[in-house]
Structure formats: structure tokens, C-alpha cells
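Q: How would the C-alpha cells look for this protein?
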Amino acid sequence: MKRTIIQTADGSSSLLVEDWGETYHSRHGAIQEAQHVFIQNGLSLFEGQSVSVLEIGFGTGLNAFITLLEAEKNKQQIDYVGVEAYPILKEEADKLNYVSQLDANQFVGEFEKLHSSEWSIKTVVSEHFSLTKRQQYFNEITDKNQFDLIYFDAFGFQYQPELWTVAIFEKMFHALKPEGVLVTYACRGPIKRAMQEVGFTTQKLKGPPGKREMLRAFKGNLLK
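A: Here is the predicted structure in C-alpha cell form.
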């Protein structure tokens, strides 16, 4: 897949997959989307707790980096696993402007470490954040009761519908601990129904800038 760096509406960069016309993040703002979907409506539910996070679609490392910044700010221990079938190149990562856009120059080394760390090996990136990157397809995930929170950030349904199926969400359901939570930017009817079919309780929430709604899913019936 040929990719080019683009700038989104909030000034932060993303990658464009040229053959699809699909971007790794919302064109309305990569950082705004990540903070709204994954931090405000996901990580914030676990305030004051140690958290294990599974990211489906490690991509540019933006979600991981923002989560690292939250971990350091709140002194919250986070064990992060990022799954990615097609890692971006070092020269692509070097052109991303997340450090400057997030005013996080003191963490430039940590951002670089997110991309330079070895695959399949747990790496301590900062005092409160550890990372394990796994290069695998989503249908190869076999974790059971391992994660408190899933960031589901796959490419859009219209481009890769096979990533938003009952079979994939069944794997997500099993990967979560009994009171685990999954958050995603998407909110299509077929996606919600696939989640519900495997046992998730779904909740529609206000979406990030440029998107009306998003989904949050709970393993079980208790909404937080």
C-alpha cells in the first residue's frame, strides 16, 4: 500500500493510503479523534487503576503515544499491546508531528522508542508505560481474559469489512477481562449488531469532531 503524509484539520499529521483514499485517522483532526474516542471515552473509565490495553491497529503510534502521556501525567501504570499487520516505515514515523503538536518535546525519545522497539518483546518505554508490539493479522489474536480496554482502530468498514465481523468481535470479547471495555470511532448498524451478537452491551456516544456518533462496548450488561 502506497502511503503519503497528510495534515489533518487540527494540524496533526496522518497517513493516506493512496489506493483507497482512506486515512489512518480522521481528516477532521487525528489528535482530536484519538483523545475523544480512546482517552475520554475509554482510558478515563480506569482512572487510578493499572490498565492493560490492546490496540487493534497500532498504525502511526498516535494512540499509544497519547496513552503514554496520560500514564506519565497521572502516574498510572499501563501495559500496552499494539497489533499491526503492516507496520509503517521509520521514515514515515520520522515525519509525524505528534510530539510538537502535543507540546511533548520532553517525550521525543519515548515516541521514537514506540517505533524502534523490537516486535514481540515487551519494552519499558517510560516509567509508567510498557509496550509489546505484535505483527499479526487480527484474526490471529487468541488472547483470553487479558485486557481491561481495547482500542479498536481498524481501517473503515467500507474498505475492510472483514475486520468488523462477528468472528473478529468474538476474539475481542474473549480477549477482554470480565468487566472489560472496547471503544471505537465507528458506529454503523452492522458493527453494533456484530458486537451484540457475541455478547457485548453497546452504547452510542457523541463522536469526535466531524463524526456524529461512536461506539463503546462492555463485556457484560453493566454500563459504567
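DSSP finds seven helices and eleven strands in the chain.

The two ends are 39 Å apart (CA to CA).

Upvote if useful.
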